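hi got a favour to ask and not much time before my train. below you get a single protein, a line of residues and a line of whole numbers that encode the local backbone shape. could you go over both lines and see whether the tokens make sense for that sequence. a few lines back from you is plenty, here it is:
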Amino acid sequence: MTHMTLGSVLRAWRERVNPVDVGLPARRGDRRTPGLRREEVAWLAGVSADYIKRIEQDRAQPSGEVVRALARALRVTREEHQMLAGLAGHASPPGASVPQHVTPGVQRMADRLADVPLAIYDVTWTLLTANPSWAALFGDPAKDSGRRRNLVWQHFTGADTPVRHDDLDRHERSLTADLRDAAHRYPHDPELASMVTALREYSSRFADLWEQPTVARHGGIRKMIPNTVVGELTLDCDVLTVHDAELRVVMFTAAPSSPDADKLAVLNVIGLQTMTTHSETTHHGT
């Protein structure tokens, strides 16, 4: 690789990925090229195959959000993610911005829990990725962009999902405390500072909580979730914090053999069918 560009790195890294390792079905027979096809990378990253082609030909400069999606799709390390970001023109001083890289280990854990609605957030509660089971329960998160992917923004601006909480006050205090902690640790992140300012202006409730020196944390709680396919479910919500990677993993589970577990099983079938349909569509490419 005499001259390293974003396109050349992307091509090299997609060729080293085994499709099975990223949740795609195994292939029969020989493949013309090793690793992932462009169409498969495109589906995993939520962009078009033509866009991947243009990036590999160095005719497109992806946004930071697309770079993060590519990093997740290719299961790269944090250092490799930083390289991709730099080649795309998004390099920033270490520690200046909130980390949004899903590490390979966290992604493998998520892959093993395919039957559990699971999503991964950064420390500001911005959604980074979610599995098909999550999408079947809440709707496809790909439809949201920008601040609409942030849980705190959704809640205090009224764009929240119609999830009902056993203890709404605790939920709001926990969200605010988490965001305040992130703001203290990443004071030079421009988007975080801008979002906090906008939230304080928009929501008097958030502004009041922001000024209170309350420390609250998310724990195991039950939530009531309406769903258009199976009706309302009552599920246990647990949050796992991955400190080194600055990530939060959110999972919803139901008691075994309960009516809610049966409803969740139906949704998992729907989510798996959706994923299979998408992945089969990509197999016609090269």
Remarks:
- The two ends are 23 Å apart (CA to CA).
- The longest strand covers residues 233-242.
- The CA atoms of residues 153 and 195 lie 8 Å apart.
